[in-house]
Amino acid sequence: MTVDLLKLKSNPRAPRHGKPEEIGWSTLPSDELTVAPDVVASATGHLVVVHEADSVGRPATMNRKFLHRSVLFLGSEILLRTKKVKVGQRRQTLFRLGERRADALFCGRDCRNTDFMFGNCVGEMRVFQNSSFLLSLITLCSSYKFFIYTPTLGHSHVNFMGKIADLLVDAGHYVVVLIPIHDPDVHSNGTTKAHRVIRFEGHTLDKTLWRSVQFKGGKQFDPNAEIMSKNDLKIMYTVYHYVCKDLINDDALIESLRAEKFDVGITEKHDYCEVGLFETLGIKTTIITSAVPFYYKMQEIVGLQHSPFIEPSIFTSFSDEMTYMERLRNIMRFHMYRYFIDDKNIAARQSIFREKFGADFPGFKDLEYRTTAIIFVNSLEMLEFARPISHKIIYMGGLGLAKPKALTGKFLEISQSAKKGVVLLSLGSIVKSTDMPHQTKLAFLEAIARFPEYNFIWKYDNPEDEILKNHSNLYATKWVPQVDVLANSKTKAFLTHCGLNSVTESVFFGKPILALPIFADQPHNAAFVQKRKVGYYIKKGNLTAESIEDAFRAVLGDGKTKTIYTQNAERMRDMIKERPFTSEQLVLRWTEYVAKFGALPEMNIYTREMQWYQTYMLDIYGPILLTIIVLIASILATIRKIVRVVLSLFESKAKKD
Predict the structure, then answer these.
(1) Using 50, 70 and 90 to split pLDDT, how confident is the model at 14?
(2) Could you report how far apart the first and last alpha carbons of the chain are, in Å?
(3) Which of 300, 328, 558, 607 has the fewest CB atoms within 10 Å around its CB?
(4) CA 577 – CA 630 distance, rounded (Å)
């Protein structure tokens, strides 16, 4: 059988009326019905296909290596005349790669959000012999290969990256996730849909070393404990280093990943191992993400200059409205992290790759600048502190937020039995309420007892704890359907550790926050919660029954009128709902855009190429200042000479007299 092909322009938009512009005809045997990438062919019966062939001319969809670049599009009526094939074979012979949502024209009607299968080998379409089909003509698209690097920094970090992986898989892309084990207590992969998940465990260090950090040992409730101690950072970077070294020296794993020929690498920005890893795997385009708020590393990557006089460090509780002493401390902290921690660790990680691959392995800072296409920040721009950003920085807070379900079982009963409402208490997955000092627990219980018309749900790891008994309006539970509870109309407030996900979920459903930050970025998050007046900041060094009661009353009010915190939280909820694009749309569209066009050097800020003295305009202001100084000095010298001359004249006149 031969099929007449009508060649069309590359990537035409799906026409609603008429036919795409014709640019030539050709005739091929059906067994050779394979066309070059980005060229569209219309066969007899309006079959439209785009796919690649391998070196021996077989359809790319039959070759896993090219799987991610094969796309099938079906036009209107198809009539292929070949020998009869059993109808039951049709579904089996279609090589399904995935599903995608698209706008389509179907049977002459405008049908939106139509599911379709793509990537099918055109040669397999011969199963539709002697049959006619009305099929949809849709906008052309491509499937790409993504490599996601997800260290186990915490459950929320892994889950955040997993949401990105699942979103890309749902869009029909091929995704591989590599999970280096840093925290051995994080067992989740985050993703349920990635095509390949690799959990890598280093062998050089004792895997329990991570457990010795302060924030996992219950010491975080100490009022004098640092937000992020130097010792904790030292332990974390030690684990980063040796896991990275073990990973790079696993030749079999590296070769298997290199053979995948990924289009884009995606990583959360905490260390520098992934910079060298992406280069080793031949990945030339990268996307950086952050499960925590925006901070200075992201600015430097895209060429922005950090401004510590208006941008509080992520490891402080400062607002952007800092006092003189706060600005001084903020600047000192920035330089401490920037020069004594980051630069040291960049050099350490570079040494691993140069030892393995040679001294000419590229520098990491230059690699990051050249390969980073965009940065996704898991935050809301209307909630966080305002700051200068680049075109390459995309705020996408709320990604993959679970759709709330109606409460059932005991949680429904708790909600229904509350006279004025429900207050949720949860300190996240790392901080344990059971680790609270005994006196702090008693303070909470005493404050809760002063609000008998409210029911309190407390996420508590040991609900059978004797100290919790005989409190009629307190319900302790190991697990809470947090999104479902926050979405419920009876829920009036959320006491949280201010992890970024919890803050986002709370404002997403318009619930005011009782902010009790413990460590890391949590005090920073609590600071912008307080700044936006969507919550009340409780200092962990002042946890008494009275201070906790004051916080509850400030947020709950009299139960009849909405407090300023509730009003602002609801306004924030409405602002989020009215955003021009959802987080999922932003991530998917920008990721596919980057996969197609690369690292987007057109969007780089030139300051990254400038010397430090040029960036701060010292080469401009320096000469001007020097000129002014010289001019002032000259004027003063001239005045001095004039004064001396005048004085000498007076002296000579006096002598004559």
Answers:
(1) very low
(2) 130
(3) 558
(4) 60
- Could you count the other beta carbons within 10 Å of the beta carbon of residue 653? 9
> How deeply is 177 buried, as exposed, middle or buried, from its count of CB atoms within 10 A (0-12, 13-18, 19+)?
buried
With left for phi above 0 and alpha for psi between -120 and 50, is residue 374 left, alpha or beta?
beta
DSSP 438-475: HHHHHHHHHHHHT-TTEEEEEE-S-TT-GGG-S-TTEE
Q: Worst-scoring range by mean pLDDT, 78-82, 212-216, 463-467, 628-632?
A: 78-82
Tell me: do 470 and 338 sit in the same domain: no
How many C-beta atoms surround the C-beta of residue 561 within 10 A? 8
Element (H, E) at 254: helix 251-258
Residue that is written with structure tokens 């949590």 in the block: 522
Do both 169 and 185 map to the same domain?
A: yes
Choose among 333, 317, 290, 320: nearest CA to 517.
317
State what percent of residues in the chain have pLDDT above 70: 77
The residue from 333, 365, 400 where one domain ends is 400
71 and 161 assigned to the same domain: no
Residue 122 is predicted with a pLDDT of 35
Pairwise CA distance, residues 127 & 479, whole Å:
52
Mean pLDDT across 295-302: 86
pLDDT in tens, 627-651: 999 999 999 999 999 998 888 888 8
SS3 222: coil
Residue 387 near residue 302 (C-beta atoms within 8 A): no
Per-residue burial over 267-293, b if 16 or more Cβ lie within 10 Å, else e, is bbbbbbbbbbbbbbbebbbbbbbbbbb
Q: Confirm whether 584 is domain-assigned.
A: no
Q: Where do we find the tokens 């889950």?
A: 159
Q: Are 278 and 355 within one domain?
A: yes
Is the pLDDT confidence value at 85 over 70? no
Q: What is the per-residue pLDDT across 175-193, written as a single tens digit (0 to 9) for each?
A: 999 999 999 989 999 999 9
**Same domain flag for 361 and 444:** no
- Other beta carbons within 10 Å of 570: 17
pLDDT value of residue 217 = 61
Range of the domain at 101: 2-138
Please name the residues in contact with 7: beta carbons below 8 A apart, sequence gap of 6 or more: 22, 23, 24, 25, 26, 35, 39, 40, 41
Question: What is the DSSP code string of 539-560?
Answer: -GGG--HHHHHHHHHHHHTTSS
Contact between residue 175 and residue 194 where contact means Cβ atoms under 8 Å apart:
yes
Is the pLDDT at 24 greater than 80? The verdict is: no
Same domain, 45 and 25: yes
Angle of helix 564-577 versus helix 500-508 axis, rounded to 10: 90
Q: Per-residue pLDDT tens for 240-281?
A: 999 999 999 999 999 999 999 999 999 998 889 999 999 999
The answer for residues whose C-beta is within 8 angstroms of residue 386's C-beta and 6 or more apart is 320
Q: How high is the pLDDT of residue 33?
A: 36
> Strand, coil or helix: what is 27?
strand
Half-sphere exposure of residue 181: CA atoms within 13 angstroms, side-chain side: 19
The pTM score is 0.76
Please give the order of strands across the beta sheet that includes 535-537: 474-477, 454-459, 421-426, 491-496, 513-515, 535-537
> Which tokens go with 495?
């006491």
CB atoms within 10 A of CB 598: 15
Any idea what DSSP says for residue 255? H
Half-sphere exposure of 68 (CA within 13 A, CB side): 22
